[in-house]
């Protein structure tokens, strides 16, 4: 199945190898990538310390330039976990195992609204040197770098 429009969502800070893997997968299955980036207000409610929406947006744009195959994408501000996923123009969503449950909730809501389900593509975690998933929280704590290398 080739999807026309694929959604990916998150805070994406610090941006790491696992996030880039999600973007790459989205580019492989869709002609357009819709990146839902959490608003500053949403980040504040999650009690995360991150740069502003605009800073994170520019960081994503700079990294996407280096990923082969990503030609058309746009970044939108989201205020909840659903973001643009209720749009009938979204055909698929790319998630990690950690966020798969959110995608299933989105499909439940879509069904209740009489909208076709979206295809859920789960991308395995990118692992760090110690064999555990790369995560933004481990990077912020100084345990690993954005490529999953242990910081000694």
Kindly describe this structure.
- With 152 residues, the protein is of the alpha/beta class.
- The chain has a single domain, classed as Rossmann fold (3-Layer(aba) Sandwich).
- The chain is built from five helices and five strands; from the N terminus they run E-H-E-H-H-E-E-H-E-H.
- A five-stranded parallel beta sheet has the order 3-2-1-4-5, with helices on both faces.
- Strand 1, helix 1 and strand 2 form a beta-alpha-beta unit.
- The radius of gyration is 15 Å and the shape is globular.
Identify the notable features of this structure and list them briefly.
globular; alpha/beta; 152 residues; 32% helix; 5 helices; Rossmann fold; single chain; 5-stranded parallel beta sheet
CATH topology: Rossmann fold
Q: In percent terms, what proportion of residues is strand?
A: 15-25%
Percent of residues in helices comes to 25-40%
- Helix-strand category: alpha/beta
Number of spatially distinct domains: 1
Morphology call: globular
Number of DSSP strands?
Answer: 5
The largest sheet, given as strand count, sense and whether it forms a barrel, is: 5 strands, parallel
Question: What's the alpha carbon Rg, rounded to whole Å?
Answer: 15 Å
The CATH architecture name reads 3-Layer(aba) Sandwich
The level 1 CATH classification is Alpha Beta
